[in-house]
Amino acid sequence: MNYLSRQNKILNNMAFNSIFVLFNKMPSEDAKKYDCDRNFFYLTGISEYDDILVFIKTEKATKTKLYIHSIDLEQERWTGKTLRENEAREISGITDIGLIESFKRDILSYMNNETLIYVLEAEDETKNYNYVNYFKREFNNYRFASGNSFLKELRTIKDKEEIELIREANIITNYGLNAILDHLKPGLKEYQIESFFDQAIKYHGATGHSFPTIAASGINSTCLHYSANTDTLEDNDVILFDLGASLKTYCADVSRTYPINGKFSEQQKKVYEIVLNGQKEIERLARPGFTTKDLNAILIKYFYKQLKKLGLIKKIEEVRKYYFHGVSHHLGMDCHDYCNYDVLKPGCVISNEPGLYIPEWKIGIRIEDDLYITENGNINLSAGIIKEIKDIEDYMANRSK
Questions:
Q1: Could you tell me if residue 93 is left (phi over 0), alpha (psi between -120 and 50 degrees) or otherwise beta?
Q2: 118 phi and psi, to 5 degrees?
Q3: Angle 148-156/3-13 helices, nearest 10 degrees?
Q4: Which residues pair with residue 215 across a beta bridge?
Q5: Residue 83 in contact with residue 100, Cβ under 8 Å?
Q6: Do 193 and 232 contact (CB within 8 A), yes or no?
Q7: What are the start-end ranges of the E strands in 101-252?
Q8: N or C, which end of the chain has less CB nearby within 10 Å?
Q9: Which helix (H) or strand (E) holds 379?
Q10: Element (DSSP H or E) covering residue 109
Q11: pTM tops 0.70, yes or no
Q12: pLDDT digits (tens, 9 = 90+) for 321-375
């Protein structure tokens, strides 16, 4: 990753006589390696907890400085080795490295009474709000401003390395979904079939999950964010999966709906084809100039016509009874990424996830892929994951017994 380029863009956007302080402060010591602050990691490639990143743009200097832990060999026997200065430089590209103990003294030396301090405010998805509030109290004589817009703008547009990581996360997710299809059958618990996904993605190199897996069978498939995953898989039901492998914080976000016994019923097929064709229409249209709201409005009009044909609704307002979420969100280091939700631009990555949820039929269908927006359209990063009815049924019919 070109962390120096990202750092320079932050400096260029800052007002003169300002500093920007970011913390990789975690709420607990047992947080996992890649459960770091995403914005801090985005700018440095460093996931070590409690480190501090400072951008300085004052009369005395224009530079980036990183503060890391001092070496504590006894503590390292318990929690592992901390970053050394040379390692921090190599990873982040930042040449000016200091120790956390000198942070407050150092930044005061660059500031005057008029210096503006940027911090990330609570609208973002970091885990640092309490520490930011503490920092504000410590420097309560200074002016503060939000630095959120700097990160939102940068993270909205993915570079080639980011796209490749999301693509690889989708490939790993496909291994997990194939493992699910290999073992899917009536009688299992939802958590049991989920476990095959977990093992497969770990085996193929995932560094984590994009979010907790949804494995929703039968009536549970009509609940958008069902999370218990404890019910028994019943013959003749479908099971809806919403899941994704993550790779070095970059997320895949995929939904697939499968027949538990290997064959969709005719009623299930009707709903599935409506959702699938709606997804194909959104994929056909998604390109620069559209917003996610535009795409959702198109999908609602399409669902209105189809649900009316099924006799389920009469008015377009009634679509919400069976479709009550949006078709797209931005995707990247977070499943719902920290981005600007204005018009799509080349380099954006968005989900494409139409769904219909019909409780009276015990049918919930959601099909989700990840789209990389290009100059003239998009590339489906989940294209290798099967979703046609025939392909799913053939796979399940031909799997090894």
A1: left
A2: -90, 140
A3: 140
A4: 241
A5: no
A6: no
A7: 116-119, 143-146, 208-209, 214-217, 238-243, 245-247, 250-251
A8: C
A9: strand 378-380
A10: helix 103-110
A11: yes
A12: 999 999 999 999 999 999 999 999 999 999 999 999 999 999 999 999 999 999 9
